[in-house]
Amino acid sequence: MKIIQTEAARLVGHVMDGGNLDQALQASLRAHPEFTAQQRGALQDLSYGTVRYFGRLQFFLDRLLNRAVRDPLLAHLMLVALYQLEFSKSAEHVIVDQAVRAAKRRNAATGTLVNAVLRNFLRQRPALRQEADADPASRYAYPRWWISLLQTQYGEKADAILAAGNLHPPMTLRVNARHCSATTYQALLADANMAAKRVDPDALILAQPVPVERLPKFAEGWVSVQDAGAQYAAALLDAIAGMRVLDACAAPGGKTAHLLERTDIELVAVDKD
User: Which sign, positive or negative, has the C-alpha torsion 151, 156, 161, 164?
Assistant: First the structure.
């Protein structure tokens, strides 16, 4: 796990320098073909989770440090470990031990600092949580300018919007109508012990996310992963057979593919990159 913690910390640093996490994560996974499926999932969770709650985690870290850490990777490693302690179900002593080992691999002298910070967090967690919750920026982990904008535009509804933005989105599937109906695919999922709820003609929401490799007929193109909201585009366009359709902002191609799955059309898809 210490290798995954370190790699997640590197990815967090890349984002803080202005990089794209999606692209960086995919590049990291390509560079580490030896990672198991579990390690790949853990890396995604740690990197995305730390970035999602960065403001709150940074609040904790600032309170736990006497002075700023000069090594950005070390600081980000502690943020990753704080994310695990606050949001994961892993054993706390294992998280701390692995973070200390990861820090020592980079600089043997930093292990004591990491150990002290993380153990102090565990001791002070109730008070730190209460203090963080008193400030909207650390409570919701959003920039202050964004919180202010939402409060101005939505008033009392702003808190609910901010809280919803931190929820984990469900895993939504788009069933390829060329192969079967959503009802038929829902039965295939049930046979594989996967519960799903139908929310649209082609959309199913899984009760629990799973690796795509476990989805029945995924490799054969029977189903794709796509948010339910994005699936409305094809339904609203309601293209009929023989139509000529231009998708002038097609990347990454999910809605384009959905259009082609629904009916026989002549489709031109373009994008700037």
Answer: positive
- Dump pLDDT digits (tens) for 50-84: 999 999 999 999 999 999 899 999 999 999 999 99
CB distance 245 to 71 below 8 Å = no
Residue located via tokens 């796509």: 226
CATH for the 172-269 domain, from 3.40.50.150, 1.10.10.10, 3.30.70.1170, 1.20.1290.10 = 3.30.70.1170
Cβ atoms of 57 and 78 closer than 8 Å: no
**Which tokens belong to 63?**
């309170």
| Alpha helices (H) in the chain, listed in sequence order | 2-16, 21-31, 37-52, 54-64, 72-87, 92-106, 111-133, 136-140, 144-154, 158-165, 182-191, 228-237, 254-262
Q: Does the model's pTM come out above 0.70?
A: yes
The strand pair at 196-198 and 203-206 is best described as antiparallel
Ramachandran sector of residue 242 (left: φ over 0; alpha: ψ -120 to 50; beta: rest): left
Which of the listed CATH numbers 3.30.70.20, 2.70.98.10, 3.40.50.720, 1.10.940.10 matches domain 2-134? 1.10.940.10
* Range 12-41 average pLDDT: 93
pLDDT tens for residues 112-143? 999 999 999 999 999 999 999 999 999 999 99
